Amino acid sequence: MWWDGMKYKEIISWVFVVIWMISIYFLSSQSASESSLVSSGITDRVYQLLSNVFKNIEVETLEAFIRNIAHFTLYFVLGFLLLNALHYNNLDKRNNLIITLLVCVPYSISDEIHQLFVPGRAFQISDIIIDILGSLTGIWGFKILIWFRDLKRTNIKL
Q1: Is 11 exposed, middle or buried (0-12, 13-18, 19+ CB in 10 A)?
Q2: Residue 91 domain flag
Q3: For the packed helices 125-153 and 93-115, what is the interaxial angle rounded to 10 degrees?
């Protein structure tokens, strides 16, 4: 079988990528009212925490910010997990960044297209841009983590 030559870490790394992509798909499948319930619940909690410190904060602004952070975080994790899977599968390290972007960017676009068919949801270019920035940051975070790991392995002191 195709997985006979794969190690445990390689298989698990791809399982996490697939699970995360499915999670993004299901979150995008929520109708606008379902998604709004989740967002408003989180916004209400955050507002209660921040309203004492920031007196002029508006709930609508906070909710938009939280939704943007959610997009960024979902694709940060996707970029990180995907680069991790490619890294552990010993593919050409020079192409891993490009491959990761060639998966994350179209997935973000397809996610927005998918939302066109979900009641009350819409295609938003701004969400794609936030998703791409999240993916790039996840890639960057993984690269930094590997860099620190390699420094530790060679016992180089910073």
Answers
A1: middle
A2: yes
A3: 150
Burial environment of residue 27 by CB neighbours within 10 A (0 to 12, 13 to 18, 19 or more): middle
Instruction: Please compute, for residue 126, the number of CA atoms within 13 A of its CA located in the half-sphere on the CB side.
Output: 6
Domain that holds residue 39: 8-153
Domain membership of residue 138 (yes or no) is yes
The H or E element containing residue 2 is none
Q: Does residue 158 lie within any of the structural domains?
A: no
Q: Is residue 3 part of a domain?
A: no
Half-sphere exposure of 53 (CA within 13 A, CB side): 5
Which 8-state DSSP code applies to residue 154? T
Residue among 16, 143, 17, 133 at smallest CA distance from 75? 133
Which DSSP state fits 30? S
What's residue 28's pLDDT?
93
Rounded to an integer, what distance in angstroms lies between the CA atom of residue 97 and that of residue 107?
A: 15
Question: What would the pLDDT profile of 105-149 be if each residue is shown by its tens digit?
Answer: 999 999 999 999 999 999 999 999 999 999 999 999 999 998 888
Cα–Cα distance for residue pair 79/56, rounded to 1 Å:
35
Total domains in the fold of the chain:
1
